[in-house]
Each structure stands twice: as structure tokens, then as C-alpha cells.
Design brief:
alpha/beta; 15 helices; globular; disordered N terminus
């Protein structure tokens, strides 16, 4: 196998034959998605889709994590420079579309953490293989951000009100729960994951039936516990169907007092610690997502990300990152401090479309499939 050793953050291995392998390779940083990683991913996804000799793409993470998502420190470091992160944001949303619509089979081998933007390299794949050690979450709302990287599209299509629940609470799902929820395709024991990878490389084929059969040789049947949140649908649907975040909290308070609903107490505590602005933006995004196409969701999320980073409604995202990853005091000072103080007009403002030339350029035809890159945009 030939590798590109100079690419420290992403190791690209072109296996002999028809298999192409990407390894996210920043184990000490939990394989965060840095600007360089975004660029390399987009470059290789395009190259391999166009390469007739490339039949199967495999992606994995080194160390104890698959990917912890976007590099929040990059956002924080750019807080005083307008649109400091616009290029990487544009590139990643453009890449998200191509991951969802990729023309060749992809297999994600996912162990450890798969959160935020890192999970986009798992959920939309044709085959997403998780283990008993996999942990998934979308915790962005809690730090004043929003459910991004196409997850307003993905989560809004889950049964009932699970989408609102996962987006607002940032609740964690195990590997078993991911398969049960339809966010992953197979559960394979961690100690069998390397053997599966070797089998897929040896298979040397992009035939979906053959790839699926190879994965199923190592797969386990999924059995979620009675205590799993996926078995709390009745209460979740009741509470998270309410029109506003305030009403959701009121409904949760009422449900928490019922026998057998003690699991709601920590959920409520988490929501009350979260950014009020982040919660309101996220709820609206998930609700809108139900009526939007993938392209519409990505364009919306691009606008939300840029407007939130511009602190158009609030600087909560920077305060949330500071408290979580910079000072690590876990004591954010939200502004505004309460749900009641969040101006609904300001929330609506971050959803307003940009002028057409400034929108994320999603290809509309097959001929245009790999056009619309950042380099071709008005931002470059």
C-alpha cells in the first residue's frame, strides 16, 4: 500500500486494487475536523468518485475516537476577525452534500466518539459500522450553536420527536442505539473491527451486496436495554412536540413528576444549563428541516453558522466554546440569560436568506456535480 506521509492529519491509503482508505489521524485531538482535514477530504472524495479504478471507500479514525467534530478552537480564535472561518465552513457544507449523494459505496468504521460534524462521516454512509464503544451526540445547541452539517435534515426525519430530543438535549447514543435508531447500519464488536477492515480490503470490490455480506459476517444482532431513551418515545413525543422551548420545558417538568420518569430530571438540568439562544435556533432549524430538502437544509445551516459566528443575535457560541474547551470552567455566562429574554425577531434574523450569490452553491445537475467550490464562489 502507498501512503502520503506528509498528510499528518489525514492519512490517505490507496490499497492495491479498488479500495481507498482514509484515516483521520489526530488521536490526541480526538480527530477533530480541522480546515486542512476538510480540504483533504473534499479533494479525495472528488478524485475517487471520478476514478474508475476506485470502487470502495473506507473511512476510520485512529486512536480512541472516530471524530469529535469541528475544531472549536479555530472558531474561537477567529472570533475577533469577521468571517475568519467562512472558508472552512463553506467547504465543509459543500462536502456534506457530496457525502450524502456519493456515487460509490462508502464504509465508515466507527469506534469511540462520533460527535457533531464528525458524525457526518458516519451517518449518511452506505454502510456505517459501529461498535459497543461508539458514542454519538449532537451537543451544539448547549454551547450556543445549532445542529449543523446536515443534521437538521437527518434528525428531523427520525420517528416522532426524537429529532427535537437529540438536537436540543445533545443526548448520547450507544452503538446499539445508533443501529436501532437507523443512524448506523451494523454493529460489530470492537475486537473484530480490524479483521473486518482486512476482509473489506481483501474483497477488493465495490459490489454492495458483497460488501454487505462481508460486514454481516462480523455483525451482531442489536438489543437495546429497557432503559434506552429509544424506549421513552411516549414521553418524548408528548414533550418535544410542543411549539416552543419554554413549553417543552414545562411539559418535561410535568412528566418528570410521574412515576417511572426519573430519567427526565437530568435531561431538564442539561436543558436549563444550555444556551437559551442556541436552543431556540436549534428547535426552529429542526422543525423547518422536516419540510426542507437536503440542499435546502444545507443552505440554511450554512447561513445559520455564518450568522451565529458573526454574533448576529448573540455571542453565546464563543462563550460556550470558552467554557467548554478554553478555560474549561463549565460556567458559561449566557447573553441573554433566559429563554424569555431571547428576542424571537433576532432568532428569525439568522435564518434570513443571503443574496443568491452569497448562498452555499449546491450543484443542481449531474453535469455540475463537482462545481460550486469555495474557489468559484464570491467569497474567494
Amino acid at each position: 500500500m502507498a501512503t502520503n506521509p506528509e498528510q499528518e492529519e489525514v492519512v490517505v491509503t490507496e490499497a492495491k486494487g479498488h479500495v481507498r482508505l482514509i484515516t483521520l489521524n489526530q488521536p490526541k485531538k480526538l480527530n477533530v475536523i480541522s480546515p486542512k482535514v476538510v480540504y483533504l477530504l473534499a479533494h479525495n472524495f472528488e478524485k475517487w468518485e471520478k476514478d474508475e479504478d476506485a470502487k470502495l471507500l473506507i473511512i476510520k479514525g485512529s486512536g480512541r475516537a472516530f471524530s469529535a467534530g469541528g475544531d472549536l478552537r479555530v472558531f474561537y480564535e477567529g472570533r475577533s476577525s469577521k468571517d475568519y472561518c467562512l472558508e472552512v465552513v463553506y467547504r465543509y457544507y459543500w462536502l456534506c452534500y457530496h457525502i450524502h449523494t456519493y456515487k460509490k459505496p462508502q464504509v465508515a468504521l466507527v469506534h469511540g466518539i462520533a460527535m457533531g460534524g464528525g458524525a457526518i462521516l458516519m451517518v449518511p454512509m452506505k454502510f456505517s459500522v459501529v461498535t459497543e464503544k461508539t458514542v454519538f451526540a449532537m451537543p451544539e445547541a448547549s454551547i450556543g450553536f445549532h445542529t449543523d452539517c446536515s443534521f437538521s435534515y437527518i434528525l428531523s426525519r427520525l420517528p416522532g420527536r426524537l429529532g427535537e430530543y437529540f438536537a436540543l438535549t445533545g443526548a448520547r447514543l450507544s452503538g446499539e442505539e445508533l443501529v436501532a435508531a437507523g443512524l448506523a447500519t451494523h454493529l460489530v464488536p470492537l475486537d473484530k473491527l480490524s479483521a473486518l477492515e482486512n476482509q473489506l480490503v481483501s474483497l477488493n470490490s465495490g459490489d454492495e451486496s458483497a460488501v454487505k455480506a462481508a460486514i454481516e459476517e462480523f455483525s451482531l444482532d442489536v438489543q437495546i436495554s429497557q432503559e434506552s431513551v429509544l424506549n421513552k418515545r411516549e414521553a418524548i413525543d408528548e414533550c418535544f412536540s410542543k411549539d416552543t422551548v419554554d413549553e417543552i420545558l414545562e411539559s418535561l417538568e410535568a412528566e418528570s413528576r410521574k412515576e417511572g420518569n426519573g430519567w427526565i430530571v437530568p435531561v431538564l438540568k442539561g436543558l436549563k444549563r444550555s444556551s437559551p439562544t442556541g436552543l431556540k435556533i436549534t428547535l426552529k432549524s429542526i422543525r423547518d428541516g422536516r419540510k426542507q430538502t437536503l440542499s435546502e437544509c444545507l443552505k440554511k445551516e450554512f447561513r445559520l453558522t455564518i450568522n451565529i459566528l458573526r454574533a448576529l443575535t448573540s455571542g453565546d457560541v464563543y462563550e460556550g466554546i470558552r467554557a467548554l474547551t478554553i478555560d474549561k470552567d463549565n460556567s458559561p455566562k449566557w447573553d441573554p440569560l433566559t429563554l424569555g429574554e431571547v428576542d424571537s425577531k433576532k432568532v428569525d434574523l439568522v435564518f434570513e436568506p443571503f443574496e443568491e450569490a452569497y448562498e452555499l452553491n449546491i450543484p443542481e445537475t449531474e453535469e455540475q456535480r463537482w462545481t460550486g467550490k469555495y474557489e468559484d464562489s464570491v467569497y474567494a
